[in-house]
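Journal club prep, notes for RB
We'll compare a predicted complex against what the paper describes. Inputs for the adenosine-5'-diphosphate case:
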Amino acid sequence: MASESDKIKKRDLLDRDIRYLKGVGPKKQALFKRIGVKTVKDLLFLAPRRYEDRTKIVSISDVIPGEFVTIKGRITLRGRRRLYGKEGFGIIVDDGTGWIEVVFFVKNMQKLFRIGDEIIISGKVEFDKYYNKPIFVHPEYAIIGKNSDDEIIAGMVIPVYPQTEGLDSRFIRKLIYELLKEDIHLTDYVPEVIRKKERLYPLHEAISKMHFPDSVLEGERARKVIAFNELFQFFYKINIKKEDIKRAYPFKQKGELSLDFIKKLPFSLTLGQKKVIEEIDKDLEKSVPMQRLLQGDVGSGKTVIAIYTMLRAVENGMQAAFMAPTETLADQVFLVLSNFISGLPLKMELLKSSTRSAKRRQILGYLSNGDIDILVGTHALLTENVNFYKLGLIVIDEQHKFGVLQRYNLWKKGDEFTPHLLLMTATPIPRSLALTLYGNLELSLLTEKPPGRGKIETVVKVEKNRDEVYRWVFKKVENGEKAYIVVPFIEESDFTKKQGMKDLYNMYEYLNKMKSDGVRIGLLHGRMKPLEKRSVMEKFRDGEFNVLLSTTVIEVGIDVKDATLMVIEHADRFGLAQLHQLRGRVGRGKKKSFCILIMSENTSQEGMKRIKALKMYDSGFDLAEFDLKMRGPGEILGTKQHGFSGFRVFHFYKDQDIIEKVRDYVKLVQNGKLPLSQEEKNKLISLREKLKEAYYVA
Ligand code: ADP
Ligand code: MG
């Protein structure tokens, strides 16, 4: 029993705040937070950026300023020393080939060094201009046979950690060194068969080798083993187990509904759309449920494809569900769908959280007896009492806004059959990343836009040109164009005041002062009731308003064909994907459009980079690739939905080589193709349980 409570204590230790460790106070705690280390476990999993090999000892006579070297010799002199105007002390180290001076500035340190001691010094060689010779300033050192802890510092292979001012690698290494002396329990989820085959260290060993390797190679291998471990857990969590997927109902029948729909479209499909439809048709014929992700830039024409696919379900006697992440978007889609299918013999309903209970009851009734063919909605579709009669297809728009488990919960609503699944996103992610995250999905791409779209010119302006920008915009509006103006905040706050940022209301005042009578401004923001939002949107579409001043609620899905101007205030504060989405609201008709980015004169470097990228690239795919390089995958995807926060060591670029391998191993495990011990099986079950906790919160 004692061992049980011991275990709990150890688990405790890992979850403890980093402050629990000796030598870490509030100041260091804050510094650690900057490099993503909050708990003891975070520290253990802190991956070195690189390794320095200090096992190679260089002769002092060969030392060259500017290089990073390790030397070994005896202390022959010691004394006070002034350097760079600072008071310190120096020692002279001699190895027989020559001598070099080593200077330190820390008080009380002097007594550590005694003449005759043998010492190892590692560090960058500086150049002492005054005496015209090489010199070490505050290098790392180890006095041989003296202080054993110091030997983890010099003369070895040394990991270099991400650094921030005030937190050096030496300190971090000492903390980890002490920590590894404790009896720490880490769960290794990778089954032994795989570990043997891939020659992976057990997790615990990998951790210790990552921090204290015997060679650079060993350190790098250890890091990769940990990345393997993390990826394994990740794929295990996101892949849906085979047992949970039943047969799908194969859509054999190609009927009037879908054929007619295509025939009656007011435009012809692009080649890209045709190709995607072919891919989808092939999937739908199978009794294995489709799991396809359709990636297409804003305005690339995904909705048409979604409708076609839903009609294929209906003509095969099945129901279809369309889930969108916001009420506004669900409204919008419902409206578009209603237009497209008007006159077709089918029944469609809209279900949202705000749907009144009488109406809701009616919808749920019709749904469960099969009288509704297509149900459009928001998260409301996930509710337990939403029961379909025969759900054959699910379309999820802006799928990355939903958690893995939410998607899964909708998917489970198929009764006898598992529904076919079409996921869509207008935030394209690079293929490499898609493969990582959605290893279980087939990918379809829409890379071209429908023909007849006007060009969008992206223009960058600074704040002092604001008046000029709006005079120009209003002139165009008076001549019959429509404009969106986007601001990041609804109301003034201490924050907006301090940052000198515009909010919806003071912007409204400002614009009203400038405008002429021909300019009619509508207001739209996230705190409005859905009905109000809809009415404003309709008025903008119909021309009652010709300027829509809004927060980013218009980011997704809104389609007003004759809007040609998009002004984004404080554009340097928005993320790339968001800016691109906003820009995609214009350029939907034949006329040339403009996207005007207004930014602060003294914007951050990052902000500047984003603005430049936006000006340079039109395509969401190019921007996504750029974004990935700039920020890494976690940021792009939003960690909550993807459990990406679980990655401490896995590095998107360094570990490309193992992504597919790990994914395939997980599939083998999940399909029962590898021999596992009972203990291993239990561990994996507990991993799934964790997933549930993590995702039900959202
Ligand atoms: P998104 O991919 O952003 O969902 P939509 O499906 O909303 O894009 O399409 C944007 C607009 O382009 C819609 O008004 C739609 O009717 C129109 N559209 C779609 N396909 C074509 C096409 N092949 N030719 C011309 N217009 C098209
Ligand atoms: Mg869309």
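Talking point for the session: Residues 210 and 221 are 8 Å apart (CA to CA).
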